[in-house]
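Risk register update: the risk of archive-format incompatibility is retired. Evidence:
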Amino acid sequence: MNRQILSDSISRRSFIGGSDARIIMGSDEAALVRLWREKRGEAESEDLSGNLIVQLGQVTEPLNRHWYERNTGRQVRDVQRQVRHSAIPWMAATLDGIVDGTEAVFEAKFMLPWSFSEEAAAEKYMAQVQHNMWVTHLRSSVLSIITGGGKWVEVTIPMDPLYLTVLVSAEKKFWRCVQSGEVPHLIMAEPPRPRIEALRIVDMSSSNSWAEFAALFRNTRQAFLDHERAKSELKALMPEDVKEAIGHGVRAKRSKAGAVSFDVLTPEVPHAPVQ
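Archived output:
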């Protein structure tokens, strides 16, 4: 892996890290401007010593790592290692670790239990993990999450080239603002939705909406299969040199590319004679 280790004394003002990426891709313009001022040396870094959630995340990180290793059988190395991107010196990351064997970026997180979901967690930390994968040239990451409700969750997130295109562009624009003194603005673009690896099996028996559409699916299944078979048979009946075939209330049209589409023809209602 082509990585340059950062010195312990490096100033956070000299690079964009994973937590910075979350702000850059976020929706809080005040936080973005505050980060810009910090990077320019015009403001001190925010004091998070009184933020209970942040402190809980820090003190539970060793437990989180231990719990991940115990439940997966995989070891985490390079804990708190600082790395810099091999070609972009102002992009860097302080890693919670790298998973042995899978070579995934490891991120230990603490989240509150109410309204928790794996999808929400992936979206919240997507910019951070994608940034860290970009910096380390690794292709996957894992969120190891402990919730305040006593639950541990593992979420695997692969590298997303589309998301990274937006992220790297936004970070470059922000860094130009740091260097030029121009005040940055939010990217004002909806980033691609995060992709997470599907791992769970859920019981939807308690969902009324699921019950409604499941019944509709079952009741229309045979009709759908008959419909698809009818289209296949009608297409086979069309001679190859025919552009359009009409009969018995159905019209089949062949495109220039050879694809055949079907329409249901509405019979014309005869007009009553004018008296």
